Amino acid sequence: MAEKRKILEVKNLKKYFPLKKGKYKEGDPCVKAVDDITFDLYEGETLGLVGESGCGKSTLGRTIIRLYEPTSGEVIFEGEDVAKKSRKEMRALREEMQFIFQDPYSSLNPRMTVFNILAEPLIAHGKFKRGPELDAYVKDLMDRCGLPSYYCYRYPHQFSGGQRQRIGIARSLALDPSFIICDEPVSALDVSIQSQIINLMKDMQEEKNISYIFISHDLSVVKHISDRVGVMYLGSMMELADKNEIYSNPQHPYTRALIGAIPLPDPTKRKEMKVIQGEIPSNVNIPKGCKFNPRCPFAKDICREQEPATKEVKPNHFVKCHFGGEF
């Protein structure tokens, strides 16, 4: 990893949603959707983000790309702090930072043809004017994403879910970005279509050296596509490591429980499912000490009183747990 260029640095990033109208002020009651997250992303790398619903994965992705304004912290992309950019400066930066949305049904304008959906960002950013060159580029983009170019004058409702997601991927690739946030891009698709979309994304990554943040609930999919995996819980990054390390040697009780719940594809093998006890606490009233302590089978007094610091238990293996490295 050391020889790769760092493309993104997230430092102490927070995104709080105030419960009262108006801008958030320190001490106001709020939903702590993203709470003090730090990590790096390297060129050509895929970082997988996993965790239960409501843990802040999608909010983190949207805050990084500034679809949500960060409450505090830094997002350094290619050496520039995204959080301090003006609206005009962000417009130019969006050529390099793109987003694939989760729902292929609601993320496409039903009143626009596929051609117009793909051409719109190219025209808006001054890459092309309407004419034969734009037509050829859009049709080539569709071909690369596995869509027949003669489909370009159809509307989104005329496509299947997998085809719509390919349109979403084509739109994110239109401006030739170096970084894409993928917010559960295959969760709404059939398993056979999922594999096609994942293989397409991997092929595009190899061709263009794109960096991905891949958000998903499916730990098997994340293991297949990711280089490193981050595990989130109640807005915090509980564990971050190389995918092989985190799946074979998880050091946080929450990570161990998630991996223990993955079903085996072989029906002849039996496995005891490790169910996490209790309900996810509220993001408004976060438990004192370690956020996971009410549900943790290994919790001790220190876990209920003191929030653990993130520590590096092995090279590039980070755990937010008082007893990380002891499991």
UniProtKB/TrEMBL annotation:
Q: Which UniProt keywords apply?
A: ATP-binding, Nucleotide-binding, Transport
User: What Pfam families does the annotation carry?
Assistant: ABC_tran (PF00005), oligo_HPY (PF08352)
GO-annotated biological processes: peptide transport; transmembrane transport
What top-level branch of life does the organism fall under? Bacteria
Q: Which InterPro entries match?
A: AAA+_ATPase, ABC_transp_ATP-bind, ABC_transporter-like_ATP-bd, ABC_transporter-like_CS, Oligopep_ABC_C, P-loop_NTPase
Any one Gene Ontology molecular-function term assigned to this protein's record: ATP hydrolysis activity
**ABC transporter domain: which residues?**
8-259
Q: What is stated as this protein's family in its record? A: Belongs to the ABC transporter superfamily.
Name this polypeptide is given: ABC transporter, ATP-binding protein
> What organism is the protein native to?
Holdemanella biformis DSM 3989
